[in-house]
Amino acid sequence: MKKQNKAILSVFAVLALFASCTRAAAPAAGTAKGEADGAQSSGAYSDIVSAPGEFPIVKAPYTLKVFAAQPPNIEDFLTNDFTIAYEKKTGVHIEWEIAAANTVAEKLNMSLVGGDYADMYIQTGMSKQTELLYGSQGVFIPLNGLVRKYAPNVVATFEELPEYKAMCTAPDGNMYSLPNISTALNICYPAKLWINSTWLKNLNLAVPATTEEFYNVLKAFKERDPNGNGSGKSVIPFFAADNSRSSFVEYFMNSFIQCNLGSSGFMYVSDDGKVQVAYDKPEWREGLRYIRRLVAEGLIDPVSFSATQDQLKQIFENPGDMIMGATVWNAPSGFMDLNGTKHKNYDTIPPLTGPKGVRLAVYRPDANVVTGAAVITKALKNPEVAVRWLDYFYTLQGDLDMRIGREGIEWRRGKPGELSYAGKPAEWAKLTAIGGAQNHFWSQYGIAQYVRHDRQASDPDPYSIEGLETRLYQATIQNYVPYTPAKALPSLYFSSSVMRKINQPLNDVRSYVQEYIVRFATGDLDLDKDWDNYVAHFKLMGLDDIIAAYQDAYDSYLKNAGSTGR
Q: Which pTM value belongs to this model?
């Protein structure tokens, strides 16, 4: 493997000890579930590693070759304080190959296609399809049996969160990667509507509960001088940004028909377990008709369909009087400066009830579990070393040491009686804000880990900077969780043959849908005259094959989950 950083440093003083731990390439791993489970879970415990929970994790110094992405907030993996401390703790030296953020995909592909494999790939943004492709070829080894035998903390995590284990399991029953798991409930509900509560009070308006009431509120914002400066022209009733994580179109559409932009692109699961698309249904047209009404009357700025997050922030942080009525985003920190005071005027409201009684939250069931965070290859003769090395990050101590920093400096333990923002006994609290580049810990690096956000102490004042998590949690629990759809589609695994068949049609359909959202909403096309032609084109684009592929993948997911639940 080409070394981008050729100055590989050894933290241990005796380099010869590392060199003595050479590793020949291991045989290709089996891909059947029985092979994955049996080969690594039976027989005697490895004589290379110590028992689970013991440190060092190896009985003699060992070297792992790791390919990793370089995040902007870590100065140097090689000399990072946590890197050095964890090497001393585990007895495992990491020979890093670091790829700059803009070269990760290219270098990862070169490594995999060229056959010069690292022992482990971490934080590369690896897709489920890449996992499955190289897992089925035996390049990535199945981790099922290894995890059961050598990773008790991973096992405990999956026992606590069994639905996430199903999301990490490929259709063949194997788990080819360990995930990054979080308990931050609010990110599963990314599209929250933030409305100017001060303006509602100024105009003596009730919090809108329906799409019609929201229309009337925006109309009042536009016409009745809510900021009291005598110039209604300065007011923007609603403005958003083109952001796939918290789409304002998605928010409004869930008052007409369930849809989830997510990785599937406005798909949903019907009550009978069938995968459906929302964008060819009559209810979708009615949702577009509502958005068109708001745009036509100047209540939604049409720039919202293409605006950037920076543009959104500039409008919200307008010097002087507030000019913004409402937007859709996950957190106020995404569109306002929490060091200021304007953000305190904005609060979330529940999903709006549509004309036929539909009232659903935008819900991402897989937002808290990111697969592909760490994969182990057949190049590693003793994969149990890598599994033991990763297992520590699924403990509270391991996650905090690696991600947050040094105990007593960047974080502390919870105090007796102290509660987290979720009302649970607080296990930890941050002592410093997340800042820029540093060299003490790995910060928000998304390596395989279990991040316990809901055990974090938080300021009970939801409008303080330190109380942001409290604010988001309360908003999510009160306004969005009650409207969670009965079933939702997570990200799914597809074989390479299926992806070859549907990948281009899927991209074409997604682009087509996005284009026609804008064209219908801005009046470029007519929702009565042009609708039938719009819908008819989906069949020509291969939508039936796409839906069938998603149905098969969803059925495999349910089989691995062992239920027909969400």
A: 0.87
